[in-house]
Design goal:
The chain starts with a helix and ends in a 10-residue tail after the last strand. The protein has an eight-stranded antiparallel beta barrel with strand order 1-2-3-4-5-8-9-10. A hairpin with a 4-residue loop joins strand 8 and strand 9. It is built from five helices and ten strands, in the order αβαββαββββββααβ. By secondary structure, the chain is an alpha+beta fold. It is elongated and about 75 Å long.
Length: 335
């Protein structure tokens, strides 16, 4: 109940702030101008394969990229409205989350036993209102130092997503798929997880979800034509399926649902035996996942813990913005 209230308050705040920003389009000051920008940066996923409780691992584990285009109207020195189209890839992998630094974490070891992974390419449209704390000086001396101006923003948007995963390296009989060179074959074909109902869903989860972008950034005007901005933003989503993993149980009819029994990583092709035995706390003769995984992780278990927050992601972006319109001073009328 409290979580739903938080979501409602966040949506209401974002809507009001964004509506106010675009409402100001009809009340431009004489200092208003517009920009178009292009930029990119890193993408960081948080969810069932990268929990919020250990978010610091998510800042450097399984990092991917994003690119963005935007149009921004600077209504006055402090208030702006921005529309942006962003393409971002996010990725999660139980086997590599937190790297070796997370080896002592029991919850991370449990995830490595689970052995799920995904990637998701997101196409996102957002509308944001931005507030600048220290207005940029539009006319500065050529030799003066750069002025850095911090800002914040909040808005609303929609994201189209489609989580995918790689198939197992093992055939149904347990034998490996081997290349002619004798190496384990790693498939390059990522398969869409949404239609597989990996938690036994009776209907597909939506591929289009609302998002609330919350941003902090800093910008500087390089010259009369260009503004450089550096920004970090968190995307609050209203879906628990960016990673195709929620609180449902394993669907034994789908080979992409339960993956603890795979002896080799579908992502890297490397053996899971050492990591698997560490995950189950076995210090004796090594066990193979294909032989004993269901004893340590029953297929009747939930795929993720109850009470987890909705999935989300952080985008960092460096954007170069070109000033396309600015104030034009008219000469005074001669008497």
């Amino acid at each position: 109940m409290l979580k739903n209230k938080i979501y409602f308050i966040t949506i209401a705040t974002a809507f009001l702030f964004t509506s106010t920003a675009f409402g100001q389009l009809f009340k431009k000051s004489s200092d208003s101008y517009s920009t178009v920008g292009i930029g990119g940066g890193s993408s960081h996923y948080f969810g069932d394969l990268s929990p919020y409780r250990t978010f610091y691992y998510g800042l450097y584990s399984n990092v991917r990229w994003n690119g963005t285009l935007n149009y921004q109207v600077n209504l006055n020195p402090r208030f702006s409205a921005r529309a942006a189209l962003t393409y971002a890839r996010i990725f999660g992998n139980d086997a590599s989350y937190g790297w070796s630094l997370a080896d002592s974490k029991p919850n991370v070891q449990n995830a490595r036993l689970r052995n799920l992974h995904f990637r998701n390419d997101l196409l996102e449209f957002t509308a944001m209102g931005l507030y600048t704390f220290i207005p940029l000086e539009q006319r500065r001396n050529k030799n003066s130092s750069l002025q850095w101006s911090p800002y914040m923003g909040i808005g609303i948007g929609l994201t189209n997503h489609n989580p995918k995963a790689l198939p197992s390296l093992q055939n149904p009989d347990g034998s490996l798929v081997i290349n002619p060179d004798g190496k384990v074959y790693v498939s390059k074909e990522w398969e869409s997880l949404r239609p597989m109902a990996n938690e036994g869903q009776t209907k597909f989860y939506s591929s289009v979800i609302p998002v609330i972008p919350i941003s902090l950034g800093i910008k500087t005007q390089l010259n009369q034509n260009w503004i450089l901005s550096v920004e970090g933003s968190y995307r609050l989503t209203f879906s628990d399926y960016l990673d195709d993993v929620s609180t449902g149980v394993y669907n034994t009819n789908s080979p992409f649902s339960y993956r603890a029994d795979e002896d080799y990583s579908a992502v890297t092709g490397k053996s899971r035996v050492d990591a698997y035995n560490k995950a189950i706390g076995n210090t004796g003769n090594p066990e193979f996942p294909s032989a004993s995984a269901t004893q340590h992780l029953p297929v009747t278990n939930q795929r993720a813990s109850k009470g987890t927050m909705r999935d989300g992601y952080i985008l960092t972006q460096i954007t170069l913005n070109y000033i396309i319109t600015s104030r034009v001073k008219c000469p005074p009328i001669q008497q």
